[in-house]
Amino acid sequence: MDLDAQGGNSRVFQRLRAQPSNDNRQQKVCHHWRAGRCSRYLCPYLHRELPPPPPAGSNGNASKRGFSDDSGFSGPSGTRRSGNFNNASSWGRLGNNKILRKTEKVCNYWVQGKCSYGDKCRYLHSWSLADSFSFLTQLDGHQKVVTGIALPTGSDKLYTGSNDETVRVWDCQSGQVCMGVIQLGGEVGCMISEGPWIFVGVPNVVKAWNTQTNTDLSLTGPVGQVYALVVGNEFLFAGTQDGAILAWKFNAVTFNFEPAASLTGHTVAVVSLVVGADRLYSGSMDHSVRVWNLETLQCVQTLTEHSSVVMSVLCWDQFLLSCSLDQTIKVWAATESGNLEVAYTHNEEHGLLTLCGMHDLEGKPVLLCSCNDNSVRLFDLPSFSERGKIYAKQEIRSIQTGPGGLFFTGDGTGQVRVWKFVAEPTVSA
Prior knowledge:
The protein is mainly β. It contains two helices and 31 strands.
């Protein structure tokens, strides 16, 4: 693994904050604003939708029914926790969290540094809208979409991969210095870390680097681009462009990964993989999710409820979550027979790209979901109450969690942004 030393970014990035809203307006929504025609920047009516009334008799606490704050999740971009999350009927029940409407938009003139309206501008002068997390810094260097972000265990370095055919190595101590660039000679389709290992999918090969021993391996076998990687039951799995899922097993004697199996069934590219509950789940461009037994490596069920590409799959305790370009997130639960069925469907207005799960500073589970309108939605689970948004210039294709409430996003311009959950402000009585 050769590093081309390059100078780090010396830019000091300004911390961006959402602008406060004017709460002294009449409690009536402006009809001209709804139609996108209101030109009054000091309009006496609301430029947002009123929150819906709570269900009768709920006291605003419906989201807490059947819910454990220690609910676990696992996925390529998350950690794993044990928990007890047994009430499938609690999905999608609205809690008393503030709902952020889908009418916010980042000011294009502010992005260009030309907006003259300042605080009076009706559009956002911020890359996020939330009180529970904040923007820390930005990592510039990639020239194309960021397709993978990895933070190896015990390492003080962050790795980012891109379609610009490079992996960049960042110093976590300084927060913004690029320590080196690895030239791969092919677009990075995905990247994950497992322990000290970093696995990078590029056309026709998987690169495996050990950050402790500096071992550099090339695993051959894939046909076309490698779009997804995951580790489970001592196997490394790779989802490939031709629809196959290849498996390797590590040999401690030879200190190498040896081919173990090829899982076939998908008809076109496999673009997402996750391991959970002794199962491997694969999402594909053929609109299906396949369920594989990790012991036999045989397909035991095919889920066909999505109507477009299944872009991402995530395990949350005993539930499986999947998102698709069909604008839905589906929550799957096991029946008495052991097969999965849809327990809840969350609908959005745009195609969905990536799922990532984490916990906030209070230990509450949060789902991050990127959309093809250049945004990321953050939802409380299981209520799916929206608690924040992140915006970008182009689609966010990579989300990765870190320690202490940190998380990272990578977008289509090549920018990587660093975010951190903060303690939410308390309202004094």
